[in-house]
Amino acid sequence: MRPPDDVLADLLAGWLPRQRWFAGKDRAIGEISIGTATELHPGPAGAQDGPELHHVIVAVRQGDGWDHYQLLLGVRHEMPDRLRYGEIGGFTAEHPDVGADHPVSAHVYDAVYDAELTRVLLDGMAAESVVGPLRFRRAPGTEVETELESVPGSAEQSNTSLIFGDVYICKLFRRLAPGANPDLEVNLALSRAGCAHVPAVCGWIDLAPSAAPALTSGLTEGETGAGEPTTLAMMSQYLRSGTDGWDMAITSVRDWFAYAPTVCDRQAPTDEDAAAAGGDFAAEAERLGAATATVHRDLAAAFGVTEMPAGHVREMAAGMHRQLDEVCRSVPALSEHETAIREAFDELARLRTPLTFQRVHGDYHLGQVMRTDTGWIVLDFEGEPARTPGERRAVAHPLRDVAGMLRSFEYAARYLIADQSLPTDTALSLETRAHAWAARNRDAFCHGYAAAGGLDPAEHAVLVRAFEFDKAVYEIRYEARNRPSWLPVPLRSLAHLAG
Ligand SMILES: Nc1ncnc2c1ncn2[C@@H]1O[C@H](COP(=O)(O)OP(=O)(O)O)[C@@H](O)[C@H]1O
Ligand SMILES: O=P(O)(O)O[C@H]1O[C@H](CO)[C@@H](O[C@H]2O[C@H](CO)[C@@H](O)[C@H](O)[C@H]2O)[C@H](O)[C@H]1O
């Protein structure tokens, strides 16, 4: 028993825009339709009075475009308090045994909060089950433990991750794109190649190509995944000793801000200043740079490299201008920096050197790396969520990732001072310190990257500057759509970059 499609669509219209992973907060929802619905628990022969688990793909129209989201829906007659947080709404259903004459009330909710139901995912992967169009997979040579309870991850993220007993982390891709997800593809290839900087993949779930029509409404032919299975979820080894790079960086920034302003307000702090402030991140930033160069080397070995003629650089610059056109229309505050950004893109277009492209991370930032007891581990090779599937899997220049991480140092430096209500003097002093923190860690990261065999960012300043601006423009659109309250963070750091 699940809500009739029209009832579910109505309930979702109010609930979806409140979800962190919903990527359309800047536009009104025009229409919602239910694509596939697959009962995962109790299954056709199961008991009728226990909680139910349904896997549902919904298509959401906003303006002329459709997006497809994956949901795990729980259905119960009685909602325990511990699940209220995920409640989507109540509905009236036919009684399962006696039918329409005896309606019963029920609740539908986000089942990621219900450990009683999410274990079905582990069971499915352990047994390599096939349920309707859903195919559960185990990584070759891996056994999947099933007696584990899940809790949803608390990290800042665009999808939803379930942590199973500190053993596995299973990421449910929320906004689906047809075809193999690059996160799975790259992680499998890098693990196979023995790369020490990625977690082991333990299993995954995909959607059979026959169900692809549920995902392709409104897409062009090139974006429809060409008969491949679509990745729905990926389960990896949980890095229990790990700390998120973002959390580490923010701790360091906090120490830096708290330290005596007379010293920290210098534009180029010394090692002694940093040591006295405590929580210095520069040594980690340098190690992170080195790990990044190693991952780039392994990606090049696993997927190959492509020499791009100089003409391609002009096309790349044109693409950056196009994104800027679009984002300036939706976020007018960006227009203030438009001239400086366009100049950087034009300078890029004038470069005459051929460039070596390869598979890269594609959305590299401090939230995508974890410091563990064995070193830095790189996560989430999914590419930027707002890009098309083709763009996410395309080769690119490795300094694009470097620029992404440089932007992340700028973000971390300004996250704590995004509050608009700070008195002007305080804001100015903190901005100076933010700049100093970012400059120190940017330098350390670039040094580590070049020393470990990566291209030296200092020798490719035009490229790095254009990539940084391009990323900043992307971020402004991302924040407007996903986390409007964060918009001041990239806007402020952009003001600095645009000088
Ligand atoms: N293998 C892992 N072990 C421990 N924590 C992880 C692991 N993978 C991801 N995380 C945590 O989950 C967060 C989000 O992961 P990520 O793959 O970036 O998700 P999303 O694509 O939804 O942003 C990371 O920042 C990290 O804190
Ligand atoms: O990690 P995702 O693949 O979901 O990436 C998206 O979300 C990120 C935020 O969760 C976003 O990153 C931006 O915010 C980060 C701080 O939360 C910051 O470290 C990054 O530098 C900044 O770009 C990312 O852009 C987006 O694609």
Automatic annotation (TrEMBL):
Q: What catalytic activity is recorded?
A: D-maltose + ATP = alpha-maltose 1-phosphate + ADP + H(+)
User: Is the Protease keyword given for this protein?
Assistant: no
Q: What residues does the Aminoglycoside phosphotransferase domain cover? A: 280-410
- Give the highest taxon in the source lineage: Bacteria
EC assignment: 2.7.1.175
Enzyme class, broadest EC rank:
transferase
Pathway connected to this protein: Glycan biosynthesis; glycogen biosynthesis
For whether the record's keyword set contains Kinase, the answer is: yes
Q: Tell me the ranges covered by the Maltokinase N-terminal cap domain, including all copies.
A: 15-114
Which keywords accompany this UniProt record? ATP-binding, Carbohydrate metabolism, Glycogen biosynthesis, Glycogen metabolism, Kinase, Nucleotide-binding, Transferase
Entry's Gene3D superfamilies?
A: 3.90.1200.10
What InterPro entries does this protein's entry cite?
Aminoglycoside_PTrfase, Kinase-like_dom_sf, Mak_N_cap
Similarity field: Belongs to the aminoglycoside phosphotransferase family.
Subunit arrangement?
A: Monomer.
Q: Tell me the protein's name.
A: Maltokinase
Which species is the source of this protein?
Actinomadura miaoliensis
**What high-level taxonomic lineage is stated for the organism?**
Bacteria, Bacillati, Actinomycetota, Actinomycetes, Streptosporangiales
